[in-house]
Design brief:
By secondary structure, the chain is mainly beta. The chain has no helices and 12 strands.
């Protein structure tokens, strides 16, 4: 995760500058293991009858994710950032998520290594035909290593949940969208990642 902090109460100076920047820019990437899917499908089969399926699938599907973020340090302990990314969701499709993340740092000195916790939520689109909306949320923790005043290296672990709309296969036939009433799925995953602020 990629963030740090701006002091609004204490004006700390280092060579005429504050000891950390007001704004942040970062890149984050990681490994995602999708573990469970709760789904509800309602559609018309090729033969014409209606099918209503609900269930829970489990397993481990490996994906990767990549995010670019820009943020603002609210004070020495809090950062608020906008994340735009590219990620996989199970074996369904890729997504373009857009989210807002809040980060809380533990340790008041931004020039020292320290722990942090974060949570984010947002929306976006799934990259399939037709495109449909998604909702996504993430909560996690990590450790930040200070490389310089402006450069930080973050290691993190998180739980991610994505509400999306997979395509439907029935008896090896792909169901067209005009025959689908509902194709909802909630995919839960664990992720480990590394982030760089520069």
């Amino acid at each position: 995760m990629t963030i740090f902090l701006f002091n609004n109460n204490v004006i700390a100076q280092e060579k005429g500058r504050e000891t950390y920047p007001k704004y942040t820019l970062g890149l984050e990437w990681g490994y995602v293991a999708s573990l469970t899917t709760i789904y509800h499908y309602n559609f018309y089969a090729p033969e014409g009858f209606r099918v209503d399926e609900k269930g829970v699938l489990s397993g481990c599907q490996s994906n990767a994710d990549l995010y670019l973020n820009v943020g603002f340090n609210l004070n020495p302990l809090w950062n608020l950032s906008l994340y735009i990314g590219y990620a996989g969701v199970g074996d369904y499709h890729k997504i373009l998520p857009v989210s807002i993340r809040g980060t809380r740092y533990f340790g008041t000195d931004p020039l020292q290594d320290r722990w942090f916790a974060f949570a984010d939520a947002g929306t976006g689109i799934c990259l399939k035909t037709p495109v449909q909306e998604i909702l996504t949320a993430k909560i996690g923790t990590g450790y930040q290593i200070t490389l310089s005043r402006d450069t930080k290296l973050n290691f993190m672990i998180a739980a991610r949940t994505t509400f999306t709309h997979p395509g439907i296969l029935f008896d090896d036939n792909r169901i067209p969208m005009n025959r689908i009433n509902r194709n909802n799925a909630v995919v839960s995953a664990l992720s480990i990642g590394i982030g760089l602020i520069f």
